[in-house]
Amino acid sequence: MSWQPTDCHAHSTHSDGALSVAEVVELARDLGVRPTISDHISRDAPTTVDSPRAVERYLDDLERADVLRSGEFCWHDALWLELPPATVRRFTHRVGSLHSIRLADDSLFRVFNRELPLGLTPAAYIEAHVSSLEALAVEMPIDVFAHPTLVPPPLRELDPHELWTEQHEERLVRALHAAGIAFEISNRYRPHERLVRRAVAHGVRLSLGSDGHSREQVANIAHPLALARKIGVRDEDLYDPTRHGSRTGAFDE
Ligand SMILES: [Zn+2]
Ligand SMILES: [Zn+2]
């Protein structure tokens, strides 16, 4: 069969997606995309997959479909630490996210907050974001770092080339490379091209992610694929757990 792009990150009704697993699979097939279900697995996210038992039931359901089996784990929530290796191996790959970051004073800050904490500058925010990513990369045995440039709404108004220093970009891609974690080109929170180029230059693998929650979004990875190709990444080098393996152990002998 000819190469097909893989959407490594999409949601279903198991968490906050609008489509059933079967609908995600059918929609992706119509778009010529290999689908993944990567619902939120967390005690601090909108999801029903919020305990080790619920994770087993979720995987039981995904195993009945022709779909890659993933989950989007919050770094700041401990549920990912509670899954036994036999459960972890049932995932084809795992996605990790900074839905909260740790600030310099050690408090957690939710990245969907409408406002930054009083007195926190954009530069201090990015410093905390990158420091949190560096901790995530060491601690979490994930395969894909979701939406690497997700920041609170007020910071999305800023030019990313000014919000992000080149030093912060370097630290982010070095941490991913050292851990063997792929950089997601998210269609939902699109990274700036300079950062994606830097990831590729450091040998970090790219992963395509719709992060789709609706019929309009799921398996829509045309923009991420076009960006990867523009940068010169070969299609077959884009992350595909069945080709490149996974840290879950799913493809180990
Ligand atoms: Zn997310
Ligand atoms: Zn997501």
Rg measurement, Å: 17 Å
- The amount of helix comes to 25-40%
**Into which percentage range does the β-strand content fall?**
5-15%
Q: Helix- and strand-based class?
A: alpha/beta
Instruction: Point out poorly predicted stretches.
Output: none
What strand line-up does the widest sheet have?
Answer: 1-2-3-6-7-8
Distance between the termini: 24 Å
Bound ligand species: zinc ion
DSSP helical segment count: 10
Described by the principal axes of the CA atoms, the overall outline is globular
Query: Strand tally, please?
Result: 8
Largest sheet: 6 strands, parallel
- Rounded mean pLDDT is 97
Write the layout of secondary structure elements.
Layout: H1 21-31, E1 36-41, H2 52-62, E2 68-74, H3 85-88, E3 95-97, E4 100-102, E5 108-110, H4 122-139, E6 144-145, H5 153-156, H6 160-163, H7 166-179, E7 182-186, H8 193-201, E8 206-209, H9 222-231, H10 241-244
Helix pairs in contact: 4-7
This protein binds zinc ion (2 copies).
Structure overview:
The chain has ten helices and eight strands. It has helices spanning 21-31, 52-62, 85-88, 122-139, 153-156, 160-163, 166-179, 193-201, 222-231, 241-244; strands at residues 36-41, 68-74, 95-97, 100-102, 108-110, 144-145, 182-186, 206-209. The chain has a six-stranded parallel beta sheet with strand order 1-2-3-6-7-8. The protein has a two-stranded antiparallel ribbon with strand order 4-5. β2, α3 (85-88) and β3 (95-97) form a beta-alpha-beta unit. It is globular and about 50 Å long. It starts with 20 loop residues before the first helix and ends in a 9-residue tail after the last helix. The relative contact order is 0.17. Bound molecules: zinc ion (ZN) (2 copies). One zinc ion (ZN) is lined by residues 72, 97, 99, 146-147. Residues 9, 11, 72, 146, 211 line the site of one zinc ion.
